[in-house]
Amino acid sequence: MSFKLEIISPQSTIFNDDVDLCILPGIEGDFGILKNHTPFLTTLRLGIAYIYKEKKLIETYLVSGGVVEVSDNQCTLLTEEIVRSNEFIPSNQENEIDKKKEKIVNKLFYS
Fold first, then answer.
1. Longest Cα pair distance anywhere in the chain, in angstroms?
2. pLDDT of 69-103, one tens digit each?
3. Alpha carbon of 77 to those of 2, 8, 42, 57, 107: distances in Å?
4. How far is CA 13 from the centre of its chain?
5. Is 72 exposed, middle or buried, given 0-12, 13-18 or 19+ CB atoms closer than 10 A?
6. Does 2.60.15.10 match the CATH number of domain 3-105?
7. pLDDT of residue 93
8. d(CA 48, CA 105)
9. What is the residue extent of each domain of the chain?
10. What pLDDT, on the 0 to 100 scale, is given for residue 111?
11. What is d(CA 79, CA 43) in angstroms, rounded to the nearest whole number?
């Protein structure tokens, strides 16, 4: 039981595959998407996107916000900034956003 997940940034399509579940960082809290989910549109906050296939966590991404649309077993995530969690490298600058990103990446909840 799967659905199509597509993650798109201005530079390229980051992810495009059938998945069983994705958990995304919604502006009002994390939410999960499964096959046959009710159609909706929402915004994202800074957080981790968890992607599951065949009942296993296959990928995590650090997302800096964006928009998600769910309709007809298709979930599309549009974001300006996204990186695989294990590839995140904090910048040498000590700004608050980088501190938050580093804290989020080092504390995965749904693994």
1. 44
2. 999 999 999 999 999 998 888 776 667 777 788 88
3. 17, 6, 10, 18, 22
4. 13
5. exposed
6. yes
7. 64
8. 7
9. 3-105
10. 56
11. 10
